[in-house]
Amino acid sequence: MTVADNDADNDKTIQNGKTKAGAAVKAALAANIGVALAKFAAAAFTGSSSMFSESVHSVADCANEIVLMIGDKTSDHKSDGDHPFGLHRIKYLASFIVATLLFFVGGVFAVSQAASKLTGLIDGSIPREAESFELVAALVVVGVSACLEGYGLHTSIHEARERMTRVKVESDSLVKFWRRTKSAELASVMMEDTLALIGLAFAGLGIGLSIATGDELYDAIGGLMVGLVLVCGSAALAFKSGSLLIGEDIDPRTREMLVEAVEGTQGVNRLINMQAIHMDEDAVLLCLKVETDKFDRDYDVQTVDKIETSIRTALPWYEWEIYVEPDIWRAQH
């Protein structure tokens, strides 16, 4: 026997405790629009390969945030019936599109442009003498961009810490949080801001060496490294968003709390099996097999209702889709 309960009061509690994703995304978009304009202006004025690669990087970042915001907005719409578990996974699809198309294409384009300039500098078709004054202006833009990107990363980290606190998971390193988070938006923005700072470091180093040596070659190498950073980052983000799209398990601490809630429910003898999957960071599909004190229909229905109440009370920050099947424990379980 399978029972699913969508209690209105519980849904209201969940919605009140649900974090609306987007603070980090909006902050990143606002910063990146200004950064992209400044970089394009600097690239046009100086002809810097590093600055051009960084301009492409910022355009990819802006497109990233726009796609993520569209995905977040669309996922809130009610399904027309073709998607019985809702449209939650649109967020994960948006993140995957960002990783595989926007980031990768932007990275490949930046690499190709930098490689073309690098080839011209080596074969002598492009003069290698650097215009130091113009490159100093580009270096200033790099510094300002680093400050803005650093602010965006700070916002992402702050939101990450808040989410760990909200869902009662162990505070961990940011790398481990990135690997474990179920938020496609936050994973994308954290990766984006980190890549931006790494790219700016390469761009700044390339421009600085060109100023110091008077040789454009270092600026072209810096631009090449920025593109490669973007390509490598897209691969990592594609792996993460692809994993979320396929379906990831709940956090180990969340699993412990679920087991405690189920096994502590009156009428439950044993939790036989439990399978859970995130539909998005705030929605979980949960399937349970339990052994009850008495195996009769009326008693089992009451126990199932108690189990669902226990779970929603213990973990109110998630939107639950719960299916419980009373069963008899066997050795093969």
From TrEMBL:
Against Gene3D superfamilies, the record matches this protein to: Cation efflux protein transmembrane domain (1.20.1510.10)
**What does the entry list under GO cellular component?**
membrane
Query: Superkingdom of this entry's organism?
Result: Bacteria
Name the major location. membrane
Task: List, for all copies, the residue spans of the domain called Cation efflux protein transmembrane.
Answer: 26-246
Transmembrane ranges, per UniProt, are 92-115, 135-154, 195-214, 220-239
Asked whether the keyword Transcription regulation is assigned, the reply is: no
This protein is called what? Cation transporter
